[in-house]
Write a structure and sequence with these properties.
This protein is mainly alpha-helical. It is built from 6 helices and no strands.
Length: about 100
């Protein structure tokens, strides 16, 4: 899962508006999006519906797809709060290594 999260962080940093955020705010927002995606997963909303909702909400398609992959498949055994913690921690680690 960490490999996919690192990929997700790198994709997000390619988005200018997101890359300009404070790194802690960026990681917080990423973790919140991941947790919301996990809540949708646990309410039996399909991966396609989750990705579509994100895209319709303004999230770039590549980010929505990467988030769905991370939450629905790689993080399928984790609760929404666990997803939040893992994503935030991985994101901060990635920020510190760059």
């Amino acid at each position: 899962m960490k490999k996919l999260l690192y990929s997700l962080v790198l994709v997000l940093f390619g988005t200018t508006a997101i890359a300009q955020q404070n790194p802690v705010d960026f990681c917080y927002n990423l973790a919140e999006l991941a947790e919301a995606t996990a809540v949708a997963r646990d309410k039996y909303i399909s991966p396609d519906q989750s990705a579509l909702a994100m895209i319709q909400g303004g999230v770039p398609a590549e980010i929505a797809i990467a988030m769905v992959d991370a939450v629905y498949f790689d993080g399928s055994a984790l609760s929404p709060s666990e997803i939040n913690e893992v994503v935030f921690q991985s994101c901060i680690e990635q920020q510190l290594s760059t």
